[in-house]
Amino acid sequence: xxDVDNNFRQKEYASLEGLCFxxxxxxxxxxxxxxxxxxxxxxxxxxxxxxxxxxGWLTIDGKFTELREGRVYVCMPGQLVEAxxxxxxxxxxxHIRFDVMEDDRPSGHSLxxxxxxxPFPAKGEVIVTSPVSIHALCDKICQNIQDEDHLRRFRGQxxxxxxxxxxxxxxxxxxxxxxxxxxxxxxxxxxxHYQQELTIDHLAKVAGISTRHxxxxxxxxxxxxxxxxxxxxxxxxxxxxxxxxxxxRLRDIARHVGYHDDIYFRRKFKQISGxxxxxxxxxxxxxxxxxxxxxxxxxxALQMNPYAAPADHPWTDYYRRKYQMDTLxxxxxNQSIKREEIRQAKPDFIIGVDILxxxxxxxxxxxxxxxxxxPWVDNDWRTHLRLIGEFLDKTVxxxxxxxxxxxxxxxxxEQVKNVFKEDRLLILNITGDRYNVLGKRSLGTVFxxxxxxxxxxxxxxxxTGQHITPNExxxxxxxxxxxxxxxxxxxxxxxxxxxxxxxxxxxxxxxGNKVDLLPSYPWVEYTAFTHELLLDEVLKIWRxxx
Length: 546
Hints:
Low-confidence stretches: 1-5
Largest sheet: 6 strands, antiparallel
Distance between the termini: 53 Å
Shape: globular
Helix content: 40-55%
Radius of gyration: 25 Å
Strand content: 15-25%
Number of helices: 22
Number of strands: 21
C-alpha cells in the first residue's frame, strides 16, 4: 500500500518539473480584537493559510472545513473561498498568496501564470509533521520579505520554496489523531453505504465511540450532523442521475439513493435543492446556453444550471466543480468558434444580452436554436429575471424566487438598520486609476433599494459609468464607505496611494471607522443570484455591529 501511495505521489509531483513559484504577499495576523476575515470571493492566485494559533472556519466551493491549530490549508485560483479566524495568540496566523507559473514553450512565452485548473499537488487541508517548524519558517520568510535589503528579500523567496517543499512532503500524511481517523472513516463509510439504512447509533458504532460524543465531534469537524451529511450526499447522487441524461423514473432514483418513502424523498429533495425533483429533472434535460456571463446568475436563480457558459468566467468552473457537471461546456471567447461550439452542442435554448451580441450574430444564433437576447439597458435585474423566466416558461419559478428574496431582504434590513441608521453610504469600485461610483445598476441596488440605506448626496445613483476624483470624494464626504478594489497591480497601487493621503484620513467614514471592503468577484455582477449572496454577506460584514 505504501509503494502504491508513493508511486501515485511521484506521478503527481512530476508536474513540478515545469513549474516556478513566486511569493506575492504574506501576512502575519496576531493579537487582534476582531476576527480576521476573508470575504467570499473567487481567489485569483494560489493561497495558503497556516493556522499557527486560533480557531475558525474555511469554505471552499461551498464545502465547510473547521480551521485547526497546526494545520495548513491550500486553495487554488478560481475557487470560491471564504474564511474567518479568531482567538489568536502571539503565534498568530499566516495568510500567503503566491503565483504558480508554467514554462509554456509552444506558445512562445517563457512563463505563464496559472489562473485555473492548477496542477499544484497539494490541495485542501494538509497535516504537517512539525507545526513548530512550519511556523518558524513562516516567521523567517516574513522577516526577510519585509526587509529593505534586496538580498534578504531574495532570501525570503528561497525560504518560501522550502516552505512549499515541506508542505508537499507532508501531503502524504493521512494519520492525524485517533478521532480524526475515526471521523474520516465514518465519512467515507457514509459515501460508500449511503444506499443503506443508516442511523446515528450505527454510525457511532462504526466510529467506535459513544453516540453523543460522535454527534458532537462530527458536527464540529464538518459543520453539519452526520445525518444531514447523509441526506445531502444522497440528494447529490440523485441530482447526478438526473443530470446524466438517462430517463430513470423518480421512484427508481429515490430507491437507488436509499429512500423508500417517495413523499419523504420529494420533501427532502426540495428542502436541499430548492425545487421539487420533477422540476429539477425537467430543468436538467433542457440544454440552455448562457451566451454571456450575466446570464449565468439569472439561470442559477431559476434553478437551471447552464449547459454551456463562457470559459473565461469563474462561475463556469465553479459549477463544474461543485456539482460535478462534467457535461458543462466552456465556451470560447472567439465569436465564430463560440458559435460553432454551440451548434455542435445542439442546445434547446440560447440566452444572451442584447448589447453584448451584434445583431448579425444574434440572427446566426437563432438559426441554431430558439434564442433570447435580454434587453439590458432599459430593465432592472428583477425584470431581467422575469423576462428570462417568461421565455423559458419559468415564470412561476421566477416569481417564487423573487418572493423568497424579498422576505430575506426584509429580514436583513431589520438586522442592520440600527447599524446604518441615517449614515449616508457611498460605494466605490477602484479600477486602475479610476474611482467608479456604484449606483442602482450594480450591487448598490441591494443597499439602496432592498435594505433602504441612505445614499450620499450629489451622486446620481441611476447613472452608470460615473467616476469621481479624490477631491470630489472629499467634497461628498460620506458617513460610510463600501470599497471594492480590483486585484490588478494598478488598482492596488491606486488604493494604497489614496490611503496615504491626508484627504483620505480626514474623511468622516475613515475617522469613524466606517470603511468596509469587498473583493471584486463575485460582487461586481448585476444578477439575481449574486444579489442573493450579497444579502448573506451584509450580515457577515456587520454581524458583530448588528
